[in-house]
Amino acid sequence: MSFLFKGGRFLNPRLDTLQDGIEILVEGGKIREVSDHPIKSSSAQVIDLGGKVIMPGLIDCHIHVFLTEVNFAYLEDVPLTMLTAQAGMLMRNMLMRGYTTVRDTGGADAGIRDAVAHGLMLGPRLFVAGAPVSQTGGHGDFRKRTQSRFECKCCSALAFNARVADGVSDVIKAVRDELRKGADHIKIMCSGGVASQSDPLESVQYRLDEIEAACEEADRWGKYVSAHAYSAEAVRRAVSCGVRTIEHGNLMDEDTAALMAEKGAFLVPTLVAYDSMKRRGKDFGMTEYSLRKNKTVIEGGLRSLEMCRKAGVEIGFGTDLLGQLQNDQSREFLIRSEVLSPAEVIRSATITNARIVRQEGLLGELVPDAYADLIVVEGNPLQDLNLFQDEGAHIPFIMKEGVPVKNTL
Length: 409
Ligand SMILES: [Zn+2]
Prior knowledge:
The chain is an alpha/beta fold.
């Protein structure tokens, strides 16, 4: 199938203004031609955009399709069949909000990624980490304090959402195992977290030799490591050992931001997660302990983002919403607009995120040979980020790899 888009306004995320008179030809799932002259095609279906804005599909670089509950403890009672169905619904909703690609930073495996790629489930294309790797007692050790042993969780949703490995040799084995299973990147836990119940937020997790070992294994496989880290110290240790993307990074300092810029590490803030947990977490069983930790990270989020931007760190777009909170996904645009321009936020969610998933030129922009992942918006997002709100209500057309998945034009 081929499609010719005309009569619209073109949003190129590399520019700060819209372009008029651009026509786009899509053929075989790819962008074939983008031109400011009329494009001729005898076979293409013509789509008249009637002055609406056409732009690349959005990319979210920090989501979890398998964290289907706000309170992780409930995941123990979710069978794998139910988990798959819930993930299916979460993915469909993301796609209908305009996200044509997402990076899962822990949980989703190659199976669900490939199920979407083969058209068995409707969702954004996925880049997956498999199970995140955590130290004993770290952000990914979900045992209760009363539990000493690891009981078998392999038939529940919990099995996907973390694995524990201690010491260089076990970390190497865990990373190799996730790579064997088809991970696109590796996720490790380098500091305390909000949703976990036994680790203080300020705890610094994993020894340097363990982090280095994880990075070396991933690197030799042609992959990279992303690390969960809040404090400046945790971020500094991770980046100095070779971690490529820092997730959250809410409690940064200026020296650490400078180090990230120097090393070319990406920051993926996930500000809406804290906003959403604060407003709605309690309704879905979030514990008092988690809500207290949430209060600390929420205060540093925007400040860290500004600090990193000033230092020249490349900033990706992530959300990290758990289970029932995922319909807040696009509020991330509004929160960031307090310190960034709409064009900057859109660049994060397209071009920068495409670089994070190592798909520059293929995703995140509409250029010849890129995947035909695009959305049509009823207005100019460079002036109004509210157009991404309301569950895709202002996005009448969504195309993924050349296939229209929504069309109310
Ligand atoms: Zn996360």
